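Record type: monomer structure entry
Structure origin: computed from sequence
Chain ID: A
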Amino acid sequence: MTTTDDVVKAKRSLPARIAARTGGGALRVFLVLMGLFWLMPTFGLLISSLRGASDIAASGWWKVFTTPAQITTDNYERLLENEAITDSLVSSVVITVPATLLVVIIGALAGYAFAWMDFPGRDWWFMLVVGLLVVPVQVALVPVSKLFGQIGIFETTIGVILFHVAFGLPFAIFLLRNFFAEIPRELLEAARLDGAGELRLFTRVVMPLGGPAIASLGIFQFLWVWNDMLVALIFADSESAPITVALQRQVRQFGNNIDVLAPGAFLSMIIPLAVFFAFQKQFVSGVMAGAVK
């Protein structure tokens, strides 16, 4: 006699049956191995940053396991003495932090307005914001360069920040508006009956509930701005260039300064990773919030 469970098992696809049978320890071991394999380039870069230039040129980073005496911190000491790298790290922070904060603050205010405030042409304005999501950065490079040159902010830190803010806002507004729209209307109406104005409603009700989405947006924006090189190459001068541009210039002399390039590249990568892991819980909550209603 055929039972319901047999019918359900028969309808399952082959991948689903394989996943069901290996969903225990075997799958966990496989995922751990895949994670270690994915992190191997990062680990290799760390080991390379702790080896001398002659050792890096002579053999691969895995050679350190047989000759651990190659490990040294001289590269990082020389890195801290390289003003081009240290200044570029400071410039990256000066560019990334304001560009991230401005996008989060302005995007949250605009997202709340589009979600819960009535004003003429609201839906049309939001459609315009959504349309801006498909505009590539390359299209705006020439006209924005001319505009920044006319107002005197071309090749300045302010110009780089404004460009990142302008291109980060459409996604920020779209993401936060959709998240804020899921907040129960009854909760907002109850707060209004208690005498809360729009600003108080935004800061005391909407912002705490939108914490996961705001954290996700902040991580996305931080990673995009920190890892950007195209915008910085065009809009930043030599004194305000971020770490990505400084490393690109060091690559031109790869054979002469590999001992500085390796630790510089590792520092450039580890900072956004630290930011991501610091807000990992909020990031996962924000991503999953849109999947489950």
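Annotation 1: The CA atoms of residues 212 and 281 lie 8 Å apart.
Annotation 2: The chain has 16 helices and no strands.
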